Amino acid sequence: MVNKPKVFISHKDQIPGTPGNYGEDAVSAVYDMLAKSIESIGGIKSIIKPGDKVVLKLNACWPKLPDSGVASDPRMVAALVRYLKKNTEAKSVTIVERASIGADTFAAMKMAGIYEAAVREGVDEVIPLERDLRVKVRIPGADLLTQEVHMPKSVFQADKVIYLAKMKTHKVATVTLSLKLAQGLLPWSEIFKYHKRDIELKIVDLLRLVKPDLAIVEGLWPMQGQGPGSPYKEDLIKDFNTFVTGTDPVAVDAVSSSLMGFDPMFEIAAIRKATQDGLGEGRLENIEVMGAKIDDLKRHFRRGYISLIGMHPKIRTYVSGSCKGCCHFTRTGIEPWLADEDKMKDFDQVDEITVIVGNNKDVDIRSEHNPPYKYTFVIGDCAAEHKDRGIFLPGCPSLSLHGLMPFIGMTDEEIIKKYQSNIPGEFTP
Ligand code: SF4
Fold this sequence. Notes:
Elements: E1 6-11, H1 24-40, E2 53-57, H2 74-87, E3 92-97, H3 105-111, H4 114-120, E4 125-128, E5 134-137, E6 149-152, H5 153-156, E7 160-170, E8 174-176, H6 178-181, H7 188-193, H8 199-209, E9 214-223, E10 242-246, H9 249-259, H10 264-267, H11 269-276, E11 288-291, H12 294-297, E12 315-318, H13 324-338, H14 341-344, E13 353-357, E14 375-379, E15 391-393, H15 412-422
Parallel strand pairs: 1-11, 2-3, 2-7, 3-4, 7-9, 12-13, 13-14, 14-15
Antiparallel strand pairs: 1-10, 5-6, 7-8, 9-10
Helix pairs in contact: 1-2, 2-4, 8-11
The protein binds iron/sulfur cluster.
């Protein structure tokens, strides 16, 4: 291979402060690391031309504090905005993001300290994508997104796009790095429609449409285990102090996932598929890796776990035939309780919670569940044949217990009403 994509690994044993409590010394340290990395892959002038409108897509999925490791690290955001303002003649630098289903993006960026960091460094605009205008497009050669999708005008009309992704494991997509960052470009109703088994096809289809000019995967304080928003304290990795930079997002993700202890072409379907389709290079032997050495930094990030079986002695589950979609949202709803001893005291008030997910034709639901216990949830359209056994939460995927867990003490009608307010409406352009 003649032209191997260049990827730079930046690492420092110590970066001052934390994401939520830092000073100028931290921003300067990250700035210097960033400047060296961009220079090594060819320099910013080869990427951004005078007068370019630059859009920077980052990660702020839920309103969480900076030290939770859920969103982009404000030290990195500050350093990157400062770098772009100082070293380019871009017409404008705009930050965009769309938080996870139902969350307010402005609130997420403010709580994570991102908004304040970006404004302090002179960013020109911050656009929450749920408020942006949309452009209707078809994706040539799409495998999954074969219908028209609605892309944000700010991104579609930008001259240059930069992805600043957070390094995290992901219960459904295995990892969430720069390729997966693109799904935040879709409106909620469209992301939700394709959030099932083949999430990786969605991610690769989005890469056919938007190929970032610069991709950075930031792992200053990355997340392992039950990402993308793990509630478990042990899933936060403090002071990994590493980020990965390149112009080929597939190569950047391959190197990033290697640092997390994955075999990118074997374990990360989106990297494999994007490489097969000629959208980038995921084979490490075909990437020119510079900077720190993968073998010196590599660690085994705990993998995300999607199964609902054995979550808690009081939660009985029937999951035959279910796919990742409903399991993901069900775990995401229950886990904040499992991770919090105080919240778990609620469980003292119930005998048992039963969860039926997916097509359960082969499962013999035991007679004592018929009639069901008070808290029996039938989750997802393909479990509909059991809907009379408990509270039916439809959808494909169903948002299931996502945001519903404080249901103890509520009536069935109250639970259903709350559930319905969770469901994203159809997107109307
Ligand atoms: S309803 Fe069935 S197919 Fe749809 S996401 Fe849920 S488990 Fe998967």
